[in-house]
Amino acid sequence: MAVSTTAVTAAAAGMPGERRGEGRRPGETDGPVGGGSPLGSFIGHAVLTLLSLACVLPIGWMYATSLRRPSDVYATSPLPWPLSVGNYRHAAEVIPIGPMLFNTFAVAALTALGQLLTGLLAAYAFAAWRFPGQRPLYLLFVGTWLVPFQVTMVPNYTLLLRLGLLNTLAGVVIPTLCTALSVLLLRQHMESFPKELLEAARMDGRSSWSVLWTVVVPNLRPALAALGIVLFINAWNEYFWPAMVLQRANSMIQLGLRGFLGGTEGNDWGGLMAASGLACLPIFALYVLLQRHIVSAFIHSGLK
Amino acid sequence: MFVTLAAVEAPEVPASYPAARPSAARRVRRALPPFLYLTPGLGCLAVWTYRPLAEAARLSFYSWNLLPSRPKVPVGLDNYADVLQLPQLRSSLWLTVTIIVCLLPFSVVLPTIVALLTQQVRGRANAVYRALVFAPVLVAPVASAAIWEWLLDPRHGGVDRLLGSPVNWLHERGPAQLAVIVITGWHLLGFAVLVVAAGLAGINDDYAAAAQLDGATRRQIIRWITLPLLSPTLVLLALMTVLLSGQLTFPLIDTLTQGGPGDATTNVYYLLWEYGFKSFNAGLAAAAGLVFFLGFGMVAGCLVWLFEKLSFHDN
């Protein structure tokens, strides 16, 4: 949400002063700014603990259920004991989890790479040149956020049909190769880039293409990595477009999960939780490993 | 805008020196690079976003059942008239607005409270809370549908056991709507907290310190300094809620309730989807899609206008 941070910083430049001291109550004491009194701090901890628990409990319950013995699925102990991988084995029998995870990984990685590349090139054009039609073209990118998926799905479906790409993983990847998010975010990063570096590179008589790859990209590496992770997660979790393109439900993990969910008449919870757990596991692993990058990438990325 | 490469300088060569004037081909070559860099991205948008949008606009004047072998019958504005007369339209529109309004506590109010509280809490605990609240953002919509279907199971689910009352959450009107809202809120909260935290971090501490010297209490500082300075961020979050609520609720509705029971959870996005693919009425779906595209475009425009107005309230 880079827009919001800059806007707030700008807003912080002035303050409505006329309200100062109004309604001041004598005898009321306060800690240092932002520090809070011990009572305030206690209430803060209590509320935040409750809220964090509410957020994490559903996820915890999924893994708890998945790790129980298949016969214990309805047990209510918060910690599963004795542990068992029976549910995972069962889930692997119902849907081909291994190939699905592989396919999903390939699609998500290719999508993220493609979106990074198109975004990088477009952002470079917007940040490094002034040219006629710049603003309308930029708005064309931003405007994609207004077009609902439901409007474009029928025409895109018929185009894929004509191209013979229905039921292929390429058909999933190709239509999503450009996203406004990477253009906007990378443009923002490039504009805060020291111009001396680029001018020096230009003095050397290098082409804009070589400046991009030898000066801009190496300096943008942290932003590119963070953005890449976000794009990968989005692509991994994407469900509707793959569901339309691939009629075989067992080619990507989200579709397999959906088929599993629709197929069980409410009594295969152990297997379902195991499959869901596996579908989320790579993302959680990424999150734990790269937590700080992901959080900052999400902060700066704004609209998904 | 850091370097202005060739494109700008090129046309400014004085015309009185014909010899120095670059040839047309040369000028084109100099102006070309930015457009070349834009080609892959714009090409994608043209083929996969704007061409379909134009095609939907064209399709909205025809009656067609999606089969390539069947002819498209021109019907003029009939599809638009049908869209506006759809019996479910009013209820689904109303539901969409209700969902958006009910999501605001999760996307604006609660995140503000959480972010203000995390300010009071020092040290590592702060980061831990934020990490935990953020975790649901990463859960895929389908996986979350599976988790909640299990939690909301009428006999053995965690929620009914916790409350001790047997509610058939997904098969009763009110509870199903509540479930869709709460689950979406659960997905949204962590992200909104981060956004508000970023907004708070951008507010200069000096104002609060100055007000405190004048004897303002913590509550007064929050009410008269922090919240006004935070308002652009909050408007932006509201904008996000309006624009993304459809995307966020859609997979949940499709997997958990299929718009039901009855049409209790059929919002406009789900209605569009049903008309586009389930009832094989492509013309009607396209017309409905365009109506909503324009509607949400206007709402977004108003919110952006509000956002810019609020951003300028400093001085």
Instruction: Give the amount of beta strand of chain A, in percent.
Output: under 5%
Number of helices of chain A: 15
The second-level CATH architecture of the domain at 99-250 and 282-301 in chain A is Orthogonal Bundle
* CATH uppermost class of the largest domain in chain B: Mainly Alpha
Any idea of the CATH topology of the largest domain in chain B? MetI-like fold
Helix content of chain B: over 70%
Query: Beta-sheet strand percentage of chain B?
Result: under 5%
**Any idea how many domains of chain B?**
2
**Overall 3D geometry of chain A?**
globular
Spatially, the strands of the biggest sheet of chain B line up as: 1-2
Largest sheet of chain A: none
**Total DSSP helices of chain B:** 11
Write down the CATH topology of the domain at 99-250 and 282-301 in chain A.
Answer: MetI-like fold
The CATH superfamily label of the domain at 99-250 and 282-301 in chain A reads: MetI-like
Uncertain regions spanning at least 5 consecutive residues of chain B: 1-19
Q: Which homologous superfamily in CATH is the superfamily of the largest domain in chain B? A: MetI-like
Sheet of most strands of chain B? 2 strands, antiparallel
